[in-house]
Design brief:
CATH architecture of the largest domain: Ribbon
Order of helices and strands: HEEEEEEEEEEH
CATH class of the largest domain: Mainly Beta
CATH superfamily of the largest domain: Umud Fragment, subunit A
Largest sheet: 8 strands, antiparallel
Distance between the termini: 88 Å
Structural class: alpha+beta
Strand content: 15-25%
CATH topology of the largest domain: Umud Fragment, subunit A
Amino acid sequence: MQIKKEIAIYALIIIVGFVAANHMNVVVSESMEPVLYRGDIVIIEKSNFLGINEFNPNDAKIGDIVVYNSKWYDKGPVIHRIINETYVNGSKYFIIKGDYNDKPDPYLVPSSLIISRVSTIGDQPLIIPKIGYITLWIKGLWFSLKLIKVVFVNLSFLIFFIFINFFQINVYFYIISL
């Protein structure tokens, strides 16, 4: 009986952890300062979480901070604020901008590209300050490790070719001295 209870508790912890982890997003740049800072974690409502629509992107409104897949930034989703909306050929598009940025994002954003909205209490976004730096550090470390690997491989080839050239030069001098 005790084992079943422990298994149920562990399963519950895993499920809660999975749901919580899928409702958090790390701010990776300074584009939303002073509201969101790099390294903050924002709590989000997803447009499609395991088939559940927590919010409808078509219902997003001016002032909402949304997470969307952009055409211009290929390193992951962008967290910016909707500053206006427009219609093109009967389809709704959003004009989105980072609070710290001078200009709006370069492309109009259809609701189909919006994947989540930052949850708020009143007008304040729900954030966990600075904890996301751990994720940013790990990503940076991973990039650094890949970079170190590339540098190591290139240096290995360079040392190999220098050694071969040095060896051939020594062989050449040895043959001349005979």
